[in-house]
Amino acid sequence: MNAIEIKNIVKTYQSKNGTVTALNDISFSVKEGEIFGLIGPDGAGKTSLFRILTTVLLADKGSATVCGFDVQKDFRKIRDIVGYMPGKFSLYQDLTVEENLEFFATIFNTSIEENYDLVADIYKQIEPFKKRRAGKLSGGMKQKLALSCALIHKPKVLFLDEPTTGVDPVSRKEFWEMLRKLKNAGITILVSTPYMDEANLCERIALMQDGNILSIEKPETIIEKFGKTLYAVTSGNMYKLLHDLREYPYAKHCFGFGDHHHLTLTDDSKSMEDIRKFLTEKGNEEVTIEKIEPGIEDCFMELMTN
Asked: What are the Cα distances from residue 18, in Å, to 10, 13, 15, 175, 228?
């Protein structure tokens, strides 16, 4: 059985410049007990979809169910069985850590003690600060508190909207370790993130851009389908190099990736020496070229520009 079913969802907004399509005929499903990732930049439509699935926003067209309940007809039932952690910290800043958790437990007619086992691994890390006001917590601690509050009623499905944005690398790693434990406890997790490296931590992902889904697969399957030779290129002048690579007659796509430029060609019969010769004739110095394996971000850029 699928925990989430989404069929032909459309959502538009009105702006000063006209109609903006946030979700354009979106359809996919999430299996029970799965960690499913929505991967894409700001403005891709991730938050709009989350708000529809958590019954705080109505779609213009299409339908969706969570655990078999319709997001419009059965919204009260859905709110009882899901946990939602929005992208922006939305707990009560003036309440302490303990008071926030007690408040959310009370809303769902439960208590911290009743479901403590589910949040123990997370809450123990912030319990020494339980008398501290939430607004005084660090980013990583706020994240752990928000997750604890989203879990305190033992939801069947957990919605996490960009939960690691603005959080340090150590806290990000700890957070994903927590998610794996929650999956093992039988909770279905739908998580969105703009960080492409987090895609590999999901069982399946949907790559999103401008309200459209570019691909839905396991991360390793998306990478296997890349289908082009990928080169990492550097030189003494990276700005000039990027301009010259894009002028190479056989260049298909070229994007900056950290301290390298990633290049794909329209003709894979061309060798690294062909590329090097062209760049040298353009006046580039200290040129290095190597074949590399693509990552999810390479696949995203390739799909986005096709």
From this structure: 16, 8, 5, 39, 38
Encoded tokens for 261: 């430029």
Predicted TM-score (pTM) of the model is: 0.88
Q: How many CA atoms lie within 13 A of 66 on its CB side?
A: 30
Cα dihedral 240→243→247→253 (10° resolution): 130
H/E stretch holding 276 reads: helix 272-281
Q: Tell me the two tokens of residue 29.
A: 């499903």
Number of neighbours of residue 213 by Cβ within 10 angstroms:
21
Domains of the chain listed by start with CATH number: 2-218 (3.40.50.300), 226-305 (3.30.70)
Buried b (16+ CB within 10 A) or exposed e, 254-284: bbeeeebbbbbbeeeebeeebbeebbeebeb
Per-residue pLDDT of 129-148, as tens digits, reads 999 999 998 888 888 888 88
Which residues are registered as beta bridge partners of 14? Answer: 19
